[in-house]
Design goal:
Helix 9 packs across helix 15. The chain contains 16 helices and 25 strands. Helix content is 28%, strand content 17%. A hairpin with a 5-residue loop joins strand 6 and strand 7 (142-148).
C-alpha cells in the first residue's frame, strides 16, 4: 500500500472536516457517486499548486463521467482560501476552483485515512503526507491508489484514463489491458485490428462469452489455457451490473456462488463516441510530445550542489513505526525461487533503482499484458539503471509456463529479461503490505483478492512510488516510465517536476521568448542566492498571493538532458 494503511476494497473511513466550501461529512458528501480524493502535504508549494490546477482543468471531464472531486492539504482553511487564488491563476481559463479542499492542519484526516503513522504524531517530528490519490466507488470503497513522492507531479492524463477505465469496466463487465487504450495495435485478426480492445473476463462460460461478446477473439497461448480473450468496445452487447460486477468476473473459482447483478447502461451510440475520444487521448509516448531522456553525466560542481538539495529533502522523511510500508521506508528484503533460479531482492537491486511488480495470480489477461509491456520496454528501464522484478503467488514451475504465454502474446524474441519470483506462501506480498486474502463469495470482500501493485525504490532502497490498481484496470507502463524519468531528474538536479511534466507550461515564455515547456521547480532546500547561478534559464511566476514560491527553471545545458522528439526507443540513450 505504501501511501496508506488502507487496502483496495476497504470502506473509506468516515470523517467530518472543514473545507473551502464549508464543513463536510465524507460519506454524506460522496452521495453514492464515484469520487476522486486528492491529497497534498502543504499549501503554497509549486508542485501542489500545479496539481490542483490540473485537477480543476480535468474536473469537467471527470464530472461527465459521474465523479465528484475533493482535495485535501495539511493547512488551515484560511490559508487554503488564499491559496485557491494562486491555483486558479494556473488553470487554463483562470476560473475559480469549483471543488472543495479540506483543511487538515491537525493531520487528523491524514491519520484517519492511513496516510500518516499515528504513532509519529505523538513524537516531536513533522511527518509528511505523500501525494496520494484515492478513487472511491459509489459504495464508499477504495478502488484504486496512486502514491507519488512529494517532488513528482501527477499526470492528469493518467487520472482521467483510470477513471474512464473504472467506469467502463463497472458498466460493461470487462477489463482494460496494460496502457489501454494504446494497446494491441499490432494485433490483426480476420483483417480487423484489435487496437484499443478490452479483455473478456476469464470466469465466463463459452455460452456467456457468445451471448455477451459475440465478436470476441480468444488468442492461442502455449499453456493451452483460454484466458486471453479480446473484444472491441462497440461489440459488447450489454453491461454487467454494479461497480463490482467486473471484478467478480475475475473470481472463476467462486463465481458460481456469487449473486447475479444487472443494471441498465447508456446508449451504445454515445458510448462509441466516448470510446473513440478515449483512444485519441494524448499519451506520454506520443512522438510529438517532449520527453527528457538520460545520457552520460559530467561531474560538475553545480550538479553536485543541485543533488544536495534532494538529499536535504530526503532527510525530511520519518520512517513508519506501525508496520505499514510508506514513502521513505526501506523496501523489505526477501529470498525465493524464481524463473531465473534462487533470488535475493536486496542483493539484486543493490546500487540500482528497482521496480517491483506484484500480481497475486498468474494466467490473468490484464497481468499478462502488463508483464509483456514491461518486457517490451525492458531496455528503456535498463538504460535508466532500473532493475525490474515481478512476484506472483504461484510456483516457479507455473511462472515458467506463464512466461511462455507472455512471450508468445507479445512476440518477444527471448525470455523476459527480469525474474518472475514465486510467492506461493504469500509471505513476500505480506512484507510489502499487500497480502492476498482467500477469495470470498461476498462482493464486499472480493476486491481484496486481485489488485496489483507497483513499487519503485531509489538506489538507497527507499520507497518512492506506489500504485495499486484493481484487477480490471491495467497499469499504463508509459506513465511508470514518465515517473522514473521525473524521479531520476529530481534526484540528480535537485528539482521538482510540475503536474503532467514534461508537457507543462508550454504557454509560459522567458525574457528571450523561449517556451518553458518541460520546465521544473528548484527545491526550496537550495539556497535562494544560489538559484541564479545553478538555474540560469528561469522564470519567476507572479501569483495573486504575492508569495514568491514558483520559479520555473529549464534543464537544457548541452550534454546533460537533451530533448528528444521521438519515442522509438522510448527513453533509451
Amino acid at each position: 500500500r505504501g501511501a496508506t494503511s488502507l487496502r483496495v476494497g476497504d470502506v473509506v473511513p468516515d470523517f467530518t472536516a472543514n473545507s473551502t466550501m464549508g464543513k463536510l461529512n465524507c460519506h454524506e458528501w460522496i452521495q453514492s457517486k464515484w469520487t476522486v480524493f486528492f491529497s497534498h502535504p502543504l499549501a503554497f508549494t509549486p508542485v501542489c499548486t500545479t496539481e490542483l490546477a490540473m485537477l480543476a482543468s480535468v474536473h469537467p471531464t471527470l464530472r461527465k463521467l459521474g465523479f465528484r472531486v475533493i482535495g485535501m492539504s495539511c493547512d488551515s482553511v484560511e490559508d487554503l482560501m488564499e491559496w485557491q487564488k494562486d491555483i486558479s491563476a494556473q488553470t487554463d481559463h483562470k476560473k475559480p476552483i469549483d471543488y472543495p479542499i479540506i483543511g487538515d492542519s491537525s493531520k487528523n484526516v491524514a491519520v484517519t485515512l492511513g496516510m500518516l503513522d499515528k504513532e509519529l504524531m505523538r513524537k516531536d517530528v513533522q511527518p509528511l503526507t505523500s501525494r496520494t490519490v484515492f478513487i472511491i466507488d459509489p459504495d464508499r470503497r477504495l478502488r484504486l491508489i496512486m502514491g507519488y513522492p512529494d517532488f513528482v507531479g501527477r499526470s492528469g492524463d493518467e487520472l482521467v484514463r483510470v477513471c474512464q477505465s473504472l467506469v467502463l469496466c463497472s458498466q460493461l463487465g470487462v477489463a482494460t489491458p496494460a496502457s489501454w487504450p494504446d494497446n494491441h495495435g499490432s494485433v490483426v485478426v480476420a483483417g480487423k485490428s484489435l487496437a484499443g480492445s478490452v479483455c473478456v473476463p476469464p470466469g465466463l462460460s463459452e455460452q456467456e462469452v457468445q451471448d455477451l461478446f459475440p465478436q470476441s477473439v480468444c488468442l492461442d497461448l502455449p499453456s493451452g489455457l483460454r484466458y486471453m480473450r479480446l473484444t472491441l468496445l462497440p461489440e459488447v452487447r450489454r453491461r454487467q451490473g454494479s461497480c463490482w460486477a467486473g471484478l467478480l468476473r475475475y473470481l472463476p473459482c467462486c463465481s458460481s456462488a456469487l449473486p447475479t447483478v444487472t443494471a441498465q447502461g447508456i446508449a451504445m451510440s454515445a458510448f462509441e463516441k466516448w470510446a473513440e475520444a478515449v483512444r485519441s487521448m494524448p499519451r506520454y509516448s506520443t512522438p510529438s510530445m517532449v520527453k527528457l531522456v538520460p545520457v552520460a553525466q559530467e561531474a560538475k560542481a553545480s550538479l553536485q550542489k543541485r543533488a544536495q538539495g534532494m538529499e536535504a529533502f530526503d532527510s525530511l522523511y520519518v520512517p513508519s513505526t506501525d508496520g505499514h510500508l510508506r514513502h521513505g521506508d526501506i523496501v523489505p528484503d526477501f529470498s525465493a525461487d524464481s524463473t531465473k533460479g534462487r533470488f535475493n531482492f536486496h542483493r539484486h537491486i543493490d546500487g540500482y533503482w528497482s521496480l517491483l511488480y506484484v500480481a497475486p495470480k498468474a494466467f490473468c489477461p490484464v497481468a499478462t499484458t502488463e508483464l509483456g509491456t514491461l518486457g517490451l520496454l525492458y531496455g528503456s528501464f535498463a538504460s535508466k539503471r532500473i532493475r525490474v522484478v515481478a512476484i506472483s503467488a504461484e510456483s516457479a514451475g507455473d511462472l515458467a509456463k506463464w512466461e511462455k504465454d507472455i512471450q508468445a502474446h507479445f512476440e518477444l524474441k527471448s525470455r523476459l529479461q527480469f525474474p518472475l519470483v514465486s510467492d506461493s506462501l504469500q509471505d513476500i506480498a505480506a512484507r510489502f503490505d499487500v497480502e492476498v486474502d482467500e477469495p470470498s463469495v461476498s462482493p464486499r470482500d472480493a476486491a481484496q483478492f486481485l489488485p496489483r501493485s507497483i513499487f519503485l525504490a531509489a538506489p538507497d532502497m527507499r520507497l518512492k512510488l506506489l500504485m495499486t490498481y484493481p484487477a480490471e484496470v491495467g497499469f499504463d507502463i508509459h506513465e511508470i516510465l514518465r515517473v522514473c524519468d521525473a524521479l531520476q531528474l529530481t534526484r540528480r538536479e535537485g528539482v521538482a517536476t510540475p503536474a503532467s511534466w514534461p508537457n507543462n507550461h508550454a504557454d509560459v515564455y522567458d525574457e528571450a521568448g523561449n517556451s518553458m515547456q518541460g520546465s521544473v521547480f528548484p527545491l526550496d532546500t537550495i539556497a535562494k542566492e544560489e538559484i541564479p547561478s545553478l538555474f540560469p534559464t528561469r522564470v519567476d511566476v507572479r501569483l495573486p498571493s504575492k508569495r514568491n514560491y514558483m520559479t520555473l527553471a529549464k534543464i537544457d545545458e548541452a550534454g546533460r538532458m537533451p530533448v528528444c522528439a521521438g519515442c522509438v526507443a522510448f527513453g533509451s540513450a
